[in-house]
């Protein structure tokens, strides 16, 4: 496996509550890895350790190592702003900024110092095309992003991420607020995006994990119970607890 992210003996505490225990995982490059497990098992917490989003919470302690292309993201040399540019995140509820479609996508590049109008136009078009949204919005780039449908807003958030040229996309239940058609579009988009990006997705929906991912990690109360090729996890899990979860015995 060609690993993009390697996680070694990762432990995470919220004050004195341990939310992740001794997690070891290799996240393969240019594939989709799904994180599944019942509510509260630590999926979102784990996802947030991959771009140090947990730093934003008070009282969080992280032990262990997370290597991105071999570089320890918790090491002293790591520049967190640059890390979050490389490892971007999409959230459960689409959260476009209250500004135009164009300005949403141009936001990141502008912050990173790009001012040239033609260059920005190019980035905006490329990012919207990559997020499979261009055809729906090209004639109204100056209109407010909040006027888009939920599914369009989520793809806009993905375009906003792509505009800063990330390498890894973290998606925290990206379709849970969307209807089935909008969900399908985002799932199709994920399949296209994995050619260029490494994707880690948290999902409550096991069918979705089975549909979109190449590898699946099953978490339970802070432990990584089982991790492997999605086909194996869903057809021949090694652990009884995995089987009980995927066959709907709990969760
Ligand atoms: N900021 C926080 N402060 C304290 N405890 C937290 C915090 N965030 C999460 N937790 C706790 O850590 C554990 C893991 O939470 P997390 O949100 O990662 O689980 P999850 O599997 O993503 O759940 P869900 O599917 O419901 O979102 C839970 O017991 C939760 O209550």
From TrEMBL:
Location relative to the cell: Cell inner membrane
GO CC terms: plasma membrane
Domain of life: Bacteria
Function as written in the Swiss-Prot or TrEMBL entry: Part of the ABC transporter complex PstSACB involved in phosphate import. Responsible for energy coupling to the transport system.
GO molecular function: ATP binding; ATP hydrolysis activity; phosphate transmembrane transporter activity
Membrane topology term: Peripheral membrane protein
InterPro entries xref list: AAA+_ATPase, ABC_transporter-like_ATP-bd, ABC_transporter-like_CS, P-loop_NTPase, PstB-like
Record-annotated ABC transporter domain positions: 5-246
Main location: membrane
Entries under CDD domains matching the protein: ABC_PstB_phosphate_transporter
Name of the molecule in the record: Phosphate ABC transporter, ATP-binding protein
Gene source species: Desulfoscipio gibsoniae DSM 7213
Key words, A-Z: ATP-binding, Cell membrane, Membrane, Nucleotide-binding, Phosphate transport, Translocase, Transport
Cross-referenced NCBIfam families: 3a0107s01c2
Any one of the GO BP annotations: phosphate ion transmembrane transport
One Pfam family in the UniProt entry: ABC_tran
């Amino acid at each position: 496996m060609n690993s993009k992210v390697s996680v070694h003996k990762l432990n995470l505490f919220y004050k004195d509550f341990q939310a992740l225990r001794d997690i070891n995982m290799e996240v393969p490059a240019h594939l989709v890895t799904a994180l599944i497990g019942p509510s509260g098992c630590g999926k979102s917490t784990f996802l947030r350790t991959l771009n140090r989003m947990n730093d934003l919470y008070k009282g969080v302690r992280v032990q262990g190592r997370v290597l991105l292309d071999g570089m320890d993201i918790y090491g002293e040399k790591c520049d967190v702003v640059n890390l979050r540019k490389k490892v971007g995140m999409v959230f459960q509820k689409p959260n476009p900024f209250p500004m135009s479609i164009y300005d949403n996508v141009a936001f990141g590049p502008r912050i990173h110092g790009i001012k040239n109008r033609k260059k920005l136009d190019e980035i905006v078009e490329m990012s919207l095309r990559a997020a499979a949204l261009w055809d729906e919005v090209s004639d109204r780039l100056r209109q407010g992003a909040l006027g888009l449908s939920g599914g369009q807003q989520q793809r806009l958030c993905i375009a906003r991420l792509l505009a800063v040229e990330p390498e890894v996309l973290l998606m925290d239940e990206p379709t849970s607020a969307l209807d089935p058609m909008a969900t399908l579009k985002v799932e199709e988009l994920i399949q296209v995006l994995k050619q260029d990006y490494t994707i880690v997705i948290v999902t409550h929906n096991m069918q979705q994990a089975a549909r979109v991912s190449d590898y699946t990690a099953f978490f339970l109360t802070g432990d990584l119970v089982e991790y492997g090729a999605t086909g194996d996890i869903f057809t021949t899990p090694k652990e009884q607890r995995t089987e009980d979860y995927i066959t709907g015995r709990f969760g």
